[in-house]
Amino acid sequence: MAWPNxxxxxxxxxxxxxxxxxxxxxDHLTPEQTHPMKFSYDxxxxxxxxxxxxxxxxxxxxxxxxxxxxxxxxRSDEKSVDPPPKRxxxxxLRDNADKDETLAKxxxxxxxxxxxxxxxxxxxxxxxxxxxxxxxLTGLAFQSLLGGMGANRVVETxxxxxxxxxxxxxxxxxxxxxxxxxxxxxxxxxxxxGAGFASSIRVRLLHAAVRQRIMxxxxxxxxxxxxxxxxxxxNDLDCIGTIATFSSTLIWLAFPRQGIFLRKQEIxxxxxxxxYIGYLTGTPTESFExxxxxxxxxxxxxxxxxxxxxxxxxxxNNVIKSLAGQPPQYASPAFLEASSRWLNGNxxxxxxxxxxxxxxxxxxxAGQCLFFMAICYTYRMVPYLDRRKITALxxxxxxxxxxxxxxxxxxxxxxxxxxxxxxxxTQMEEGEKSGIQQSGIExxxxxxxxxxxxxxxxxxxxxxxxxxxxVRHLVGAVG
Length: 479
Description:
Blueprint: E1 14-17, E2 20-23, H1 31-34, H2 43-55, H3 89-96, H4 101-111, H5 119-131, H6 133-145, H7 152-161, H8 169-184, H9 187-190, H10 195-220, H11 227-230, H12 236-246, H13 248-254, H14 264-280, H15 291-304, H16 310-323, H17 333-344, H18 346-351, H19 359-381, H20 383-403, H21 440-478
Antiparallel strand pairs: 1-2
Helix pairs in contact: 2-4, 2-10, 5-14, 6-13, 6-17, 8-10, 8-20, 12-14, 17-19, 19-21
C-alpha cells in the first residue's frame, strides 16, 4: 500500500505509475533510449554455452528436435546402466576453461573482481537482506515476482518455458530464492569459487540456453515469438529489470509499503551487492553505479515496461494458486491477494485480474506490517540482537526453503528443465490442494493486529490523561 504524502511537490514533471509517484528528470530513460537494449544480450555467455554443448552434449529433451547436438541415446540391445549424472554447466566451464579460448575468456571475466567491488560493503549488503528478512521475502514474492508479471514482454518468455504452471510455480519461486540465499549466505559464498558465485554463473548459462532455444524455434516458426516486437529473449533490458526487481524495487517500493525504511548506508550497500551479482550473471552494471541512478532506472522501467496482458493475468493468478494453502504459511487465496494488492496497489492488481479481498484480509496485512516493523526496528537498534537475528535467519531460511521437507529438499543446480517448446505455453490452472488445514500466518497477523490496536489504544488513553492533567494544572496555575 502506497502511503499518501500530502506534502509532495507536484508539477508538470510529476508522474504516477501504478500507484507510485515520482519526478521525471532528464536522467530517466525514455522508450527510445531503452529500445536498443531489447536487442543486445550476453553474447559471451551464449558463445560459451555453444562450446560446452560441444564438449558435453545436452540430453535430447533440452534441444530442438532437428538439432544434431543430441547426446546419443542407448540402443535397445545394450545392457541397462545407471543414468548419467546431471550436467553441471558451472563445473564443465571450470574444468575446461584452460582448454578453450571462449571458455577461458568467460572464466577470466567472472573471476576478475571489478575495481568497484568493496568486499566489506558486499558483506554489509548481505546483512541487509537478513536484517529485513520477513519483509524482503514478502516483497520478493508478491511485488518483485507477482507484480513483475505486469512486464508484458518478459511474460512472453516465461510462458513459453511452462515454469509458471500451478504445479511448478512454487518450486520455481523457491529455486530463485535459493539463488538469493546462496549469494547472501556468507562473504566467501559470493566470492570466486563460492556457492553463490557458482549459482550466478549457472543462472547466466541457463539464461543463454533459454534464449538460444526460443530463438531457434522462432527462426523455424516466426509466429512462435515475435522478435521485432518483443526483442531478443532475456536481453540486456530484461536482465537490468531483473536485478532492479531484486534490489531497487525492494528498497523503494516493497519495503516502504510495509513500513520499512532503510538507512542511507544500507541502501548503498544493498545496491552494491546486486550490482556485483548482476556482473556475474552477465548484466550491464552501469545502471547500478549509484543508488540515485538505480532508482531512476527502476522508475523508468515501471513507466515504460509494465503494461499487463492476458498472459500476465494467467501467470499472476497461477502464482497465487500455487501458494494458496501451502506450507510454511498455509495462507488463503484471499490473504495472498491482499498481500499482492498491499504491495502493488489496486490498479496493477486489477490489471492482473486478481480478486478483491474483504476488509478482514486487509486488516491481517496491516497486522503483518506491524509485526515486521516491531521486529525489524527493535532488533536494528541493538547491535547484539541485530547480529543474532541475522545469523539465525541465515540458518532458518536455508532450512525451510532448501533443506526442508516442504521446500526444495535439495539444492537445485539450475539445469535446463523448463524447456520452451512450440506447443508449450502456460495456461490458467486450478491450484494444488495440500489437504492441510492450518491457520499459519493469518493467525499470527491477527494476533499482532489485536496487540497493536490494544497498545495504541492504551497509549492514546494514557496520553489523553497526561495532556488533560497538564491542561488542568496550567489552568489552575493561571487562575
